[in-house]
Amino acid sequence: MRKVYNFGAGPAMLPEAVLLKAQKEMLDWKGTGVSLMEIGHRTPEFQALADQSEADLRELMAIPSNYKIFFLPGGATAQFSMVPMNLLGINKKADYIDTGVWSKKAIAEAKRFGDINIAAAACEENGILSIPEQDEWKLNPSAAYLHYTANETISGLEFQWVPDTGNVPLAADMTSLMLAQPIDVSQFGIIYASAQKNLGQAGVTIVIIRDDLIREPVANTPATYMYKTYQKYDSFYNTPPTYSWYISSLVLSWLKEQGGVEAIYKVNQRKAARLYAVIDESKGFYESRIAVKNRSLCSVSFYLKNDALTEQFISEAHEAGLAYLKGHRFAGGIRACIYNAMPEEGVNALADFMLDFAKRNG
Ligand SMILES: Cc1ncc(COP(=O)(O)O)c(C=O)c1O
């Protein structure tokens, strides 16, 4: 048993069962006599792993057959470039929703390649951040796509709904939400997420793309940035991040054992509800700066009204085995990331600590 609950944003906590399996298989992967790290990606053994992980992901997310799945290097950050390079097409116009740090990074990259319209942005009123409803957005009906960040991991600002873009393909950065809640993949043109939050360890990024969107990219796009390349070579154009892919494959089978996405979503909802209840019932000792309708399921951010107590909260929590709760350097305060791997006991331990800390210091 591990002694610490890790609330860090990513690379984040992995299920203990996954770590134990990886440990057990470290020196001899499936009777090959070698570690997975030492196996060629073009061997039948690795091919079987790749096929199985794709099949598991398809099953878990009910991904329709006209969507391709890629396991790519470069992080979600590379997707900030790959999405515009490959999807802008000839009119080179796209809509973006700006909800925070990650959207801004995606927008900055897209602006290198096309004419980017910020159709809407998060707004702050009386210190509370929210996402405007879609009827307030300025959408361009001839945009090549609309991009949004489903959950801004830093602030903990989540959509909780899927934009309706009609025929305009929807591009979603789901880095901190993929597999935490059910989604209807057919509503999206492309979904991407780097693995180190809910899907495994850093190094691999999962891209799910409707096959008609795998188009001719902008001029001079390097081969490693073309979806076409990965379609042609099934993610094996060059050496893929094999060990990260392997850890993702273990996470996917672990998730199936937990009952799949619907089952883990129920647990995730209970976990988030427990923390938000402690915040809301603390009589202002803790405060959330996110509108209730946009509160994140996976990255719960909050502040102590008396900011002078923040450092004390973080260090006492750490001593109590509740680790890495410090908010992002851009946001301050506290952030508890409670992805799929965080057990309910970890969240309950944090909630109890918060109640006790407020009692002692309120
Ligand atoms: C929502 C979101 N998008 C993109 C990224 C960037 O991911 P990477 O560091 O894997 O490029 C992160 C990382 O935390 C994120 O939370």
How do you describe this structure in short?
The chain is of the alpha/beta class and 362 residues long. It has helices spanning 16-24, 44-61, 75-87, 101-110, 227-233, 242-257, 260-280, 310-319, 344-361, and strands at 5-6, 67-72, 93-98, 115-121, 123-125, 128-130, 146-149, 151-152, 157-158, 170-173, 190-194, 205-210, 286-287, 299-304, 322-323, 334-337. α1 (16-24) packs across α6 and α7 (260-280) packs parallel to α9.
How would the blueprint of this fold be written?
Blueprint (H helix, E strand, L loop, with lengths): L4 E2 L9 H9 L19 H18 L5 E6 L2 H13 L5 E6 L2 H10 L4 E7 L1 E3 L2 E3 L15 E4 L1 E2 L4 E2 L11 E4 L16 E5 L10 E6 L16 H7 L8 H16 L2 H21 L5 E2 L11 E6 L5 H10 L2 E2 L10 E4 L6 H18 L1
Parallel strand pairs: 1-15, 3-4, 3-7, 7-10, 10-11
Antiparallel strand pairs: 2-12, 5-6, 8-9, 11-12, 13-14, 14-16
Bound molecules: pyridoxal-5'-phosphate.
